[in-house]
């Protein structure tokens, strides 16, 4: 009689076992076993120490409530970050409680986790808004501003060192992920607590809803703010509107950029009244109205402007000055540069990409288009490929690596302004040439964090920049300034004095009867220096020996000298290009739908 044996499934080697196999040694099983073991240990500990478990549970619940309520009430600016903001009832908490009470367990867990994750994301966006408002005077743009975080890391690296920048980046990412996870866990914890005490929670939610609606209807306030609030919903709505507006603006601005009052103007009809002049357009980093009017910075900057005006007059130069409202604030200098030179309001990165990809006439390109000027760019802040040079009409560009500098960096600034100007003189302005020069010069020594600041040396001592080794080493450390508002103001004022002195001394030393200098600030310094209520105005000056150059702008009503009066005209920065071209004889020939 045959022997019948039970059927056995053939075993497979462990390396062929499916990932979710329940065989010993599989990762999922080990993870589940470890989790069960930890839970068992926790329950056992709770059984042995009931009072301790009760305290731990209450502490966890309290922290969860604080975390969720704090996130719901968190403002998106440092100015609004006051205790009274947290003495309110968030309507979103009432709605969420009611919703979670109505759901069965699994949907409740999912809804609580999603609610918490969304609240964590909103908290991250609010923190980004705080930083962007503090430094750039505007909220974070969810569509456009992620690339600026790389610039922020580079700035920290230049100011505080590469290690600090790396740790700051790692810390920021870790904080963002931690907020998402903790907020989700906190919401789940509170949702389970509500379900465990459903009747009492329902009565509490009803009472909270009644109080909220009553306070909202009567406009009840505590400590100067409404008790009933939906600030989190409004913040989320504002972010959504910002995204929609950004996407709509792209098409509208692309159409606007095609309209150009001087887009079809023949070369011979562009700036005919400046033929034969060496034109120098210079941007001084962060040179804003606050430097001239703030009581901390104004005395030193004012003395420098007065002394420079007098020294230039002795050399035969005279100046007129006014105000321009910049398209940017606190940073993103390229937006100010492109606005000033294009005549378009370029106030975000999307607009910048759109306009630089097109053929809208820039003020600098107008000179190149005539064929009567050599055009160059002096760009010590450029440290990578810069394709925008063609759009600006620059035949040649000297970047941070092209000016022969062998000295130390001064935080973000790759070289002192005096060296930049002396290199410009050596490489271009002082050369024998067959036709005049048009140059765009960017001065960077007044870039934050304003430490260490270079000091003036003899122009004959500048050399290859090695003279600055000792000056940089003995200067103020960026870490001692960057978090100190009062110190930042003082050092910022000194940096503006240095930049203005470098530029005006260069003009005294090397300027000719045919030199015309236009210089301005690209934007105000950040709010920590300029103040939360500061305007976006920057000073602008035109300096020349030839009286005809300044006579051409008499109807602008600008102030004599380098310091504009408080009541001097204020124009949008985008208005300058057309006014300048018109003042010096250019004939409009419009292109595009707006012509």
UniProtKB/TrEMBL annotation:
<keyword id="KW-0472">Membrane</keyword>
<feature type="transmembrane region" description="Helical">
    <location>
        <begin position="86"/>
        <end position="103"/>
    </location>
</feature>
<protein>
    <submittedName>
        <fullName>CDP-alcohol phosphatidyltransferase</fullName>
    </submittedName>
</protein>
<feature type="region of interest" description="Disordered">
    <location>
        <begin position="1"/>
        <end position="28"/>
    </location>
</feature>
<keyword id="KW-0812">Transmembrane</keyword>
<feature type="transmembrane region" description="Helical">
    <location>
        <begin position="53"/>
        <end position="74"/>
    </location>
</feature>
<keyword id="KW-0808">Transferase</keyword>
<dbReference type="GO" id="GO:0016740">
    <property type="term" value="F:transferase activity"/>
</dbReference>
<feature type="transmembrane region" description="Helical">
    <location>
        <begin position="200"/>
        <end position="220"/>
    </location>
</feature>
<dbReference type="InterPro" id="IPR017850">
    <property type="entry name" value="Alkaline_phosphatase_core_sf"/>
</dbReference>
<feature type="transmembrane region" description="Helical">
    <location>
        <begin position="110"/>
        <end position="128"/>
    </location>
</feature>
<keyword id="KW-1133">Transmembrane helix</keyword>
<feature type="transmembrane region" description="Helical">
    <location>
        <begin position="164"/>
        <end position="188"/>
    </location>
</feature>
